[in-house]
Design a protein that fits this description.
The protein is α/β, with parallel strands linked by helices. Helices cover 27% and strands 25% of the residues. It has 5 helices and 7 strands, in the order E-H-E-H-E-E-H-H-E-E-E-H. It is globular, with a radius of gyration of 15 Å.
């Protein structure tokens, strides 16, 4: 069964709350595919997840480095920006498959550009512009059900079924 929910984010505070909720329930090996136009808040959401994990480093989009690792929080965070990836080889030279199976969580900006390389059990987060400058619509699609603090979600929940 596929879980799908659309959330209206009225401003930065709502994005922060969503990021913290994701961080609270995140488990090692989970992959979050972030999809949206330029400026829809993909990096802002990653920053909120990082803060929720207890990461204090400044989070910037790794546009030219493709991946940035943060190991200081509750879980390691592997932040990808695949906008400038020109081939599958670019990702696999970085150890992309090892990150996907790693001990942390992967958040991948522009994930729709590498859709065929992603595992099936990802959580896809689609961000779209809303009616006002700060408003966004966030559609979350996951084959594993909604993530709730204190409840196993993601890859671990799939293994228990």
């Amino acid at each position: 069964m596929i879980y799908s929910e659309t959330i209206k984010l009225k401003g930065p505070e709502d994005t922060e709350a969503l990021g913290r909720k994701i961080a609270e329930s995140a488990l090692p090996g989970e992959v979050y595919a972030l999809v949206g136009d330029l400026g829809t808040g993909k990096t802002t959401l990653v920053q909120a997840v990082a803060r929720g994990l207890g990461i204090e480093s400044k989070i910037l989009s790794p546009t030219f480095t493709i991946v940035q690792e943060y190991d200081e929080g509750r879980l390691p965070l592997y932040h990808f920006d695949v906008y400038r990836v020109s081939s599958e080889d670019d990702l696999f030279e970085l150890g992309f498959d090892e990150y996907l199976e790693g001990r942390g969580i992967c958040l991948i900006e522009w994930a729709d550009l590498i859709e065929e390389l992603l595992p099936e059990d990802i959580c896809a987060i689609f961000l779209d512009y809303g009616a006002s400058e700060d408003e966004r619509y966030c559609r979350i699609v996951s084959p594993l059900g909604p993530a709730e603090p204190g409840k196993k979600g993601g890859a671990a929940a799939a293994e228990e079924k």
